[in-house]
Amino acid sequence: MRPVTILLVLTNLPDRPSAEALARELVEARLAACVNILSSCHSVYRWHAAIETAEEVPLLIKTSSERYAALEAAIRSHHPYELPEVIALPVSHGLPDYLAWVADSTSAPDDLQGLPR
Questions:
Q1: Structural domain boundaries of the chain?
Q2: Phi then psi for 47, rounded to 5 degrees?
Q3: Distance, CA of 21 to CA of 15 (rounded, Å)
Q4: Cα gap 55→99, rounded to integer Å
Q5: Beta carbons of 113 and 36 less than 8 angstroms apart
Q6: Does residue 114 contact residue 36 with C-beta atoms inside 8 Å?
Q7: Which residues pair with 62 in a beta bridge?
Q8: pTM of the model
Q9: What is the per-residue pLDDT across 44-57, written as a single tens digit (0 to 9) for each?
Q10: What does residue 70 show for φ and ψ, rounded to 5 degrees?
Q11: For strand 41-47 and strand 87-90, is the pairing parallel, antiparallel, or unpaired?
């Protein structure tokens, strides 16, 4: 079995209920091992040539590089923003057992056939 690259994916949602709904969906679909829903933050950004501000709820999503494309598609299809922030950072170091858990928790259902649960 080849090594799996673990990713930390960042996104923001406009409110806590939408953040919780997206987090649950990603974990249930095995696209994320864990999603941390952070306290709201105040964002300042340029959008359509204007400076905007918004209260947003940041998410920290732990996944594997193999599941990233499906994760990104799920975020885009369930995100209320026209252009959601989706930034993936590779995890270069971490507790080996934790990283193995992330890889196992994000294995596609087909990858799990025959494995003990």
A1: 6-111
A2: -145, 125
A3: 10
A4: 32
A5: no
A6: no
A7: 8, 34
A8: 0.89
A9: 999 999 999 999 99
A10: -70, -35
A11: unpaired
